[in-house]
Amino acid sequence: MDAALLPSGIQRVLVTGGAGFIGGAVVRRLLTDSEALVFNLDKLGYASDLRSIELTLAELGQRGLTANGDCRHQLLKVDLTDAEATAAAVKQADPDLVMHLAAESHVDRSIAGPGAFIESNINGTFNLLQAVRAHWEQLPEERQAGFRFHHISTDEVFGSLGPEGRFSETTPYDPRSPYSASKAASDHLVSAWHHTYGLPVVLTNCSNNYGPWQFPEKLIPVVILKAVAGEPIPLYGDGANVRDWLYVEDHVEALLLAGTRGRLGESYCVGGGNERNNTQVVQAICDLMDQLRPEGAPHSRLITPVKDRAGHDRRYAIDPAKISTELGWKPRNSFEQGLVATVNWYLANQKWCAAMTDRASYSGERNGVQPWMV
Questions:
Q1: Which end of the chain is more exposed for a tag (fewer CB within 10 A), N or C?
Q2: Is the Cβ–Cβ distance between 180 and 118 less than 8 Å?
Q3: What is the pTM of this model?
Q4: Was domain 8-207+248-271+316-332 assigned CATH 3.40.50.720?
């Protein structure tokens, strides 16, 4: 994506959760492929990290495109649950586009501690909407006309599919976990602020993301790192739960298209078209590890069934026809291509993984285990 794909009126972009996995990828793309000023609002929680952005700024500096630490990226250390600080951050950023990615997102953690998800995903979104609405209402007419608020959500708000069919923009909401319920609530808030107050919004709901720089508690990095260490690889239940896997860089392209070109008040479903059950994903990683680290082969011997997650949705799949037809988006990477890149990245960046897990006091254990689950 290049600067021409950002409308000329979008010169200042506020990204919430820009030190997270997907948010960080959005920030990096904006820095490398646009000239926009990027304001990165993040509370810097356990899964946050700025290393990838620092490396991007350094690389741009080496290429003579920007100085290291250039003011095009400004970090705003703010927790959205603090309404006053949120309002001050929005005022400082003075954005033309807001991309709202900040959220507590790990289902297992939401089972163990749902309160944090209610506070962050619902109350935090409310505070942001109020601050952004006040900002938008006082903009000059020309800037106000081009302003957009893009809310990034998940396919988990739609619940669980049977063996047939795919989620679309008209699928009824049916969340099954504290995480997905909190995201569903935030989606409804955003839609309500559009219909009630006229706030110009776009929503997207994505399938499971994967790729470099993901915090090592999610399925794919967990499997890679367990395989490297020769430790048991956990497989929930019967391993037949299906997800539609989306490479993070493909998702970023969809987000920037929807956020800048999508129709106001509309939602767009973003999926990779890569349905795999958990057994297939884990086995594919083990096969790659056998090739890349043959001394540990066969890594599949490490696969260990564990008690299934409470309320574990059976299948997700997305129909991306709307964003494809209206905006011309389609994923560039097959699951196989993305997985090879991801496995190689984690093998080459084990020091980063260790630093992240140490900082978060996370040692690879399963999160959210309750007495009735063991």
A1: C
A2: no
A3: 0.93
A4: yes
